[in-house]
Design goal:
Blueprint: H1 9-47, H2 66-74, H3 78-100, H4 102-109
Helix pairs in contact: 1-2, 1-3, 3-4
């Protein structure tokens, strides 16, 4: 993830929220707010097995509450926040892959795997 393994919890939370913001920005025109939100909630749900504290997030009536995600990640140790953020993004990738296939998934998420403006690349969950 963009915060790297040496980032503190706040940096991890900021990086995770930035990636989800990009996902929302890039996929919203295609899937709509509700579609992106439901993929987020599903990714969150799949990530709760290894990170039960994520259960407090993901209200289906307000599915993409990134402020709440940031707060929850900041409260965890950095390594745990990083693992949870990576799990959520990995699960998102798998869910999207199962829905639209590999070529369209790669095309939709291509901007996330390229270097950001800070020069650090996002981690590709497929590797």
């Amino acid at each position: 993830m963009r915060a790297g393994v040496d980032g503190d919890s706040a940096q991890v939370a900021d990086a995770c929220v930035a990636i989800w913001t990009e996902i929302d920005r890039d996929l919203n025109p295609i899937l709509g707010t509700r579609g992106v939100g439901m993929l987020y909630v599903r990714s969150l749900s799949l990530s709760r097995g290894g990170h039960p504290w994520l259960a407090e997030l993901g209200d289906p009536s307000s599915p993409m509450d990134l402020a709440a995600l940031r707060t929850r990640l900041e409260l965890r140790p950095a390594a745990e926040a990083l693992a949870a953020g990576a799990a959520m993004l990995g699960n998102f990738y798998v869910v999207l892959l199962s829905l639209v296939g590999p070529k369209l998934t790669e095309s939709l998420l291509r901007s996330l795997w390229t270097p950001s403006s800070s020069g650090a690349a996002a981690q590709d969950p497929s590797s």
